């Protein structure tokens, strides 16, 4: 089980243990929200997997067998650390059985310690999979390829449509090289008589096949490649459709989002790990921050049902509430906001639309910015929504130097590219228009769309004819040219005179239309891409900011946890014998590995095993005769040393035979 998944389950159990009754609104709100999020994620995954699966099934149906002896092989590149690698192959196996006349055997590396075991497993699977109702019990010495060939020809001799024998190797990279090579040689030998199709599940790249199988074997295989979307591309799709969505009443602060992305990009590339981390954030925000029931009613616009405790939670937990109350000019309103729940709820109703408007236009302009930056050089800010989001939600991006440089580069984009960008922007705006049911939001978004349509037509119709954006007359320009400049000093005087007359450079109609469009976009970015500090009041209800409280559960620190456990085992064992008054103190009641570990912290790079044993024996059992150490103590010491070596703290030194070398400091 994934560590983060354990943390999620532990937190959910903690929530359930603290529930007073089954109608706990915080937990119910979290549960309903997570079910909807999970459904959207599964829908996104299945939509793409079905495309790859349908093309795979179509290919298997069209395979024709001949007597050439080539083994029909499919390479299914699933990508690194996908959410459900094994689940994908179970789905593939099920779909093949339901849609193609075939017998399927799923082979995993753990079932193949040798070629003999692999062949026995395959033959047994094929025979028993064909007739699942009557399981045929066969002896191991009977399970061979010759026996499978005889059974297949006898069973389907009179059949018009013989089933295909499909072998799925789910974790191809985990197989032993020699075993795989021998097994494929055997399958190639029988491929002229038996309709074998080999499907190899590859999580890395095609290069791994070349590393495992030499050219002598691949020459006997008819290889076809099917590739799934990479985990990074799938993550981008999931983030755009679920996490960065105004429909969701749960959003992440810049730091929280960046923590999840850093773990994904620099640690494991695991989609499952990312989603479970997101789930922990949601669980913490809904249940442990007591915002669950508030958000649930807030999202459904049932503010009238807020209880007194929920109103107090908002007053105490939302930092923006203080600014909001202090901004009231009338003293009576301030008092009512603090004490009168009905007045508070009535005024809060007006804040719902503002928070919804903020996220609606924020995400729209975030995607517009992503379209503008996607093919520009020097991606200092990033080009994807997931890269731009933490910057935009944390800082005023329009004031950053990198942002200004990127907008300067936009003024040099070709006419064809800028038209493509504007077309994509119009599609994004139209998507947001169709995605909302609120007429007010639709009206404002349509108003936003009209200028982009105008700029698109204007740029499309603009030509290379030049216009002059200068107040200087033709006579003045002619007089300045007439003067000429024979030397450097005269040239400088000429330039100064031109500057006085404010003579601007000549621009084309396209450049003027482009600059007008860019200036308009920049003004809209300044208006709608605002950081959280400038978001509407009470934004804390919908944004998770306190990721520090669960940072340990999200970011694993194994070395720190090991050091803490070995230095002070009382934290985990909670027994009185392991309780130490001082961190440096070593008690004989501590576990052996803790004693050995704390002694090794006192040593330099190289540790004498004899001196180490003497110190260990002195702590365990004080004996005046230092030369005599009981065999039991020596055995305990040897076991502890082996455990430390296994954990990676020490290794055997080449310096001396009876010396160990430290690996950590």
From TrEMBL:
It is found in: Nucleus. The chain crosses the membrane at residues 183-206, 355-373. Pfam families: ORC3_ins, ORC3_N, WHD_ORC. Keywords: DNA replication, DNA-binding, Membrane, Nucleus, Phosphoprotein, Transmembrane, Transmembrane helix. Residues 559-665 form the Origin recognition complex subunit 3 winged helix C-terminal domain. Residues 304-537 form the Origin recognition complex subunit 3 insertion domain. InterPro entries: ORC3, ORC3_ins, ORC3_N, ORC_WH_C. One of its GO terms (cellular component) is DNA replication preinitiation complex. GO terms for molecular function: DNA replication origin binding. The keyword DNA-binding applies. Its main location: nucleus. Belongs to the ORC3 family. Component of ORC, a complex composed of at least 6 subunits: ORC1, ORC2, ORC3, ORC4, ORC5 and ORC6. ORC is regulated in a cell-cycle dependent manner. It is sequentially assembled at the exit from anaphase of mitosis and disassembled as cells enter S phase. This is Origin recognition complex subunit 3.
């Amino acid at each position: 089980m994934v560590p983060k998944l354990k943390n999620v389950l532990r937190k959910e159990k903690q929530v359930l243990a603290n529930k007073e009754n089954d109608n706990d609104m915080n937990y119910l709100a979290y549960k309903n929200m997570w079910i909807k999020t999970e459904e959207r994620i599964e829908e996104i995954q299945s939509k793409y997997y079905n495309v790859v699966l349908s093309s795979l099934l179509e290919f298997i149906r069209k395979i024709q067998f001949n007597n050439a002896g080539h083994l029909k092989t499919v390479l299914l590149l699933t990508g690194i650390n996908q959410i459900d690698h094994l689940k994908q192959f179970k789905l593939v196996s099920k779909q093949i059985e339901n849609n193609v006349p075939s017998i399927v055997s799923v082979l995993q590396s753990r079932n193949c310690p040798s070629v003999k075991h692999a062949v026995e497993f395959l033959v047994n699977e094929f025979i028993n999979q064909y007739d699942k109702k009557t399981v045929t019990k066969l002896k191991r010495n009977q399970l061979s390829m010759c026996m499978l060939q005889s059974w297949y020809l006898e069973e389907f001799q009179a059949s018009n449509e013989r089933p295909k024998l499909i072998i799925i190797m789910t974790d191809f990279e985990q197989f032993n090289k020699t075993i795989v090579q021998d097994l494929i040689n055997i399958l190639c030998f029988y491929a002229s008589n038996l309709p074998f199709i080999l499907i190899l599940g590859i999580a890395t790249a095609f290069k791994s096949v070349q590393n495992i199988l030499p050219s002598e074997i691949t020459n006997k295989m008819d290889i076809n490649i099917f590739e799934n979307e990479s985990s990074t591309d799938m993550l981008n799709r999931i983030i755009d459709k679920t996490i960065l969505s105004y429909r969701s009443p749960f959003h992440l602060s810049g730091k929280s989002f960046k923590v999840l992305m850093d773990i994904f990009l620099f640690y494991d590339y695991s989609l499952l790990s990312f989603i479970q981390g997101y789930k922990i954030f949601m669980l913490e925000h809904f249940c442990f921050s007591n915002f669950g029931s508030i958000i649930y009613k807030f999202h459904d616009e049932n503010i009238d049902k807020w209880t007194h405790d929920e109103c107090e939670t908002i007053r105490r937990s939302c930092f923006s509430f203080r600014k909001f109350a202090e901004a009231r000019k009338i003293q009576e309103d301030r008092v009512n906001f603090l004490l009168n729940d009905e007045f508070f709820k009535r005024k809060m109703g007006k804040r719902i639309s503002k928070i919804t408007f903020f996220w609606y236009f924020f995400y729209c302009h975030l995607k517009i910015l992503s379209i503008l930056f996607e093919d520009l050089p020097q991606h200092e800010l990033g080009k994807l929504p997931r890269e731009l989001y933490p910057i935009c939600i944390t800082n005023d991006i329009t004031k950053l130097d990198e942002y200004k440089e990127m907008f300067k580069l936009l003024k040099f984009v070709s006419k064809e590219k800028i038209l493509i960008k504007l077309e994509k922007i119009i599609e994004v705006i139209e998507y947001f228009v169709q995605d909302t049911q609120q007429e007010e939001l639709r009206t404002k978004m349509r108003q936003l769309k009209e200028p982009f349509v105008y700029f698109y037509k204007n740029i499309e119709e603009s030509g290379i004819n030049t216009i002059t954006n200068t107040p200087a007359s033709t006579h003045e320009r002619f007089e300045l040219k007439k003067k000429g400049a024979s030397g450097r000093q005269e040239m400088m005087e000429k330039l100064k005179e031109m500057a006085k007359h404010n003579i601007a450079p000549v621009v084309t109609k396209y450049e003027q239309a482009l600059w007008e469009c860019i200036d308009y976009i920049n003004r809209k970015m300044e208006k709608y891409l605002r950081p959280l500090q400038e978001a509407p009041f009470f934004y804390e209800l919908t944004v998770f900011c306190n990721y520090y409280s669960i940072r340990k559960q999200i970011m694993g620190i194994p070395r720190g946890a090991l050091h803490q456990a070995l230095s002070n085992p009382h934290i985990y064992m909670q027994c009185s014998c392991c309780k130490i008054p001082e961190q440096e103190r070593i008690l004989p009641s501590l576990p052996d590995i803790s004693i050995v570990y704390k002694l090794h912290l006192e040593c330099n790079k190289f540790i004498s095993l004899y001196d180490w044993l003497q110190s260990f024996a002195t702590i365990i059992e004080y004996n005046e005769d230092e030369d005599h150490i009981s065999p039991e103590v020596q055995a305990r010491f040897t076991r502890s040393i082996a455990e430390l070596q296994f954990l990676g703290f020490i290794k055997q030194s080449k310096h001396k035979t009876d010396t160990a070398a430290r690996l950590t400091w």
